[in-house]
Amino acid sequence: MKTFSSHSRLFKATAGLAFALFFSSAAKAQDVDVNDNLWLTGSNGWIFHTPNDGRTDLYIASAPNKVSNWAAAFFFKANGSLGLGTQSPTAKLHVVGVGGENVDFLTTGRLKTTSPTGGLYMGDTKYIGGGSAGILALLNGGKTRLAVREDGRVVIGDDVSAAVAATGYALSVRGKVFSEEVKVALASAWPDYVFAPTYQLRPLDEVGQFIAQHQHLPGLPSAQEVSTDGGIELGKMNTQLLEKVEELTLYLLEQQKNQAQQAQQLAALRQELEALKQCK
Questions:
Q1: pLDDT in tens, 110-142
Q2: Residue 58 class from Cβ within 10 Å (0-12 exposed, 13-18 middle, 19+ buried)?
Q3: pTM for the whole thing?
Q4: Which residues contact 69 (CB under 8 A, 6 or more apart)?
Q5: Alpha-carbon distance 22 to 7, whole Å?
Q6: Residue 194 gets which letter from DSSP?
Q7: In whole angstroms, what is the distance from residue 29 CA to residue 24 CA?
């Protein structure tokens, strides 16, 4: 092996893998021809190896005291691919780690793909990344389970690859929703105004006429309106239904009052009838 002074070329191995080649202004660049392995010797040594079988791959491995650790080697393929933990990388960077809960790739910065459809695969059926039309998609089981549009609207469900986010709504669900509790922020007043003294309660005969003409309760949407709108608004519908329950309570209270008055009138008539009988 040919040796050079520190003025022409210097190799340095650190605790990781780092080597630098420096040329002085007065020195002429030269090639280094090595027919076998290139060793950086010592307790923190490394080996640079190209197989002598026609391949143009480069292997770099730690080799303290010339004992090669090929299991933890870097494998540079002639096509530009780099394998870590594998001698046969199938991508530009192919890492074969120990698996399990161990961390095989760690960064304190960010990972970036310049492709709008780039992303991260986990096996063959799980993926998170860019989809069509600027959508961020999450796939599982080979189907798109979640899609986030650029305007923030979200679609979830069994297969939402072609699902359209509902206009005016932040979340669209293709399928059923099961929950222990749902809280809705109301955009209108809670209908306790029904019990205000100034509330105009429709007479029952007027309600009957409205039902006969329209086939639904006043203040509630018709079946045709619900179909045209594609459903109901949960908060608004609960408010309208409570309004009807409170109106019904007022009708019952009014009926109870009328019944009490009728009972008093009936009792008075009975007393008069008994008085007439005694006069005969």
A1: 888 888 888 888 888 888 998 877 888 999 988
A2: middle
A3: 0.58
A4: 61, 62, 63
A5: 8
A6: G
A7: 9
